[in-house]
Design brief:
Blueprint (H helix, E strand, L loop, with lengths): L2 H16 L7 H16 L3 H4 L2 H20 L2 H12 L5 H25 L1
Helix pairs in contact: 1-2, 2-4, 4-5, 4-6, 5-6
């Protein structure tokens, strides 16, 4: 999940939604969120070398992607709990919830500012 994947996935998501095709935006938004998190982790070697911490951050990113797609942070956390991680400690659940809330609030504020 690098920069090239992020660029192509974002472009494909924009074009498919703009074309009016009956395609879901939820899956690509999760992938875009995880790609962004992966790119932002690369400069921090202490995080990128620790696989457990990397999984926690990617779980939070997946929760943020679902939160943005549906506008439901709790749904994002539950999706992340069910699909992304096979081991989900309480600490990760709270981190995912905070990340999903920040993403949902940011989307709401951004939509108010742009209108």
């Amino acid at each position: 999940m690098g920069g090239w994947t992020l660029l192509i996935k974002s472009l494909g998501l924009c074009l498919s939604v703009a074309s009016g095709l009956w395609l879901g935006k939820e899956g690509p938004l999760v992938h875009v969120a995880c790609s962004c998190a992966n790119i932002l982790m690369k400069p921090f070697h202490s995080i990128s070398r620790n696989e457990a911490r990397k999984r926690e951050i990617l779980s939070a990113a997946a929760a943020a992607g679902i939160s943005v797609a549906f506008g439901s942070p709790i749904g994002g956390v539950l999706f992340s709990l069910e699909q992304v991680s096979y081991y989900f400690p309480d600490k990760t659940m709270w981190q995912s919830f905070v990340c999903a809330m920040v993403a949902a609030v940011t989307l709401q504020v951004r939509s108010v500012i742009l209108v």
